[in-house]
Amino acid sequence: MIGCGAGAAICEAYRASIPSDNSHQARNTIAAGTFALGMSKLARSAPMQTKLTINGKSHNLNADTRTTLLDALRNHLGMTGTKKGCDHGQCGACTVIVNGRRINSCLTLACMHDGNEVTTIEGLGTVDDLSPLQRAFVAHDGFQCGYCTPGQICSATAMLEEIKAGWPSHVSADLNAEIALSDAEIAERMSGNLCRCAAYPNIVEAIRTVAQGGRT
Fold first, then answer.
1. Across-strand partners of 54?
2. What is the dihedral of CA 62, 64, 68, 74, to 10 degrees?
3. Contact at 8 Å (CB) between 194 and 92?
4. What confidence tens digit (pLDDT) does each residue in 86-113 have?
5. Measuring CA to CA, which of 85, 153, 175, 180 is 20 to 30 A from 67?
6. CA angle in degrees (0–180, nearest 5) for 88-94-100
7. 12-60 pLDDT, tens per residue?
8. How large is the greatest C-alpha to C-alpha distance in the chain, in angstroms?
């Protein structure tokens, strides 16, 4: 958000750029500025149609262009499994999977994902048919309050696919060797997801169990 001082400085710079005479250049400069301001107001006020495929189901979203993917999911589509924590991309509670990649849904606009496939916690399993990671989190007590759990599980789901694809992390000892799932490796790959209850050891164990093909 632009503060009052910064806004005044921008306006003053714009006025200074306008020639003092009534020349053709001056009229063009003013017209261009007026058009830009008008388009800015239009962009803020006009909703935009966005088509999203969420958990295999098509949705047509009609929302303000400033609507984040997180707010679109929760407030417009009623999918409240994805949580809003910090709303600044710092905690990972809002993690979802877009086209196979995990992202912080609070940091991206919904309109940027027209035609994309989005997977939320609701799409990973059901009460009667939990995903392997969901079962492992239950078996290993990988949560306490549970608020961060949807983001943790979405992140871990995509992270395991990254490992299968051979993507190294910052702590991988050898970029060309098979990835060893040490505590440090898993912790590094999940470092974008915070747990205020500090259930990290159990989260790591749950992820390792699934990665090694264990049953829960």
1. 57, 118
2. -50
3. yes
4. 999 999 999 999 999 999 999 999 999 9
5. 153
6. 115
7. 554 555 555 555 554 555 555 555 555 555 555 578 999 999 999 999 9
8. 79
Location of structure tokens 């830009």: 36
Which one-letter amino acid corresponds to residue 110? A
Strand order in the sheet with 47-54: 57-64, 47-54, 117-119, 95-98, 101-104
CA distances from 144 to 82, 140, 148, 205 (A): 17, 11, 9, 15
Query: Helix (H, G, I), strand (E, B), or coil: what is residue 94?
Result: coil
SS3 108: coil
Contact 158, 167 (CB under 8 A): no
CA separation for the pair 89, 82 (Å, rounded)? 13
Q: Please identify which residue in the block is written with the tokens 């059901």.
A: 126
* Helix pair 132-139, 200-211: axis angle to 10 deg: 140
Beta partners for 49? 62
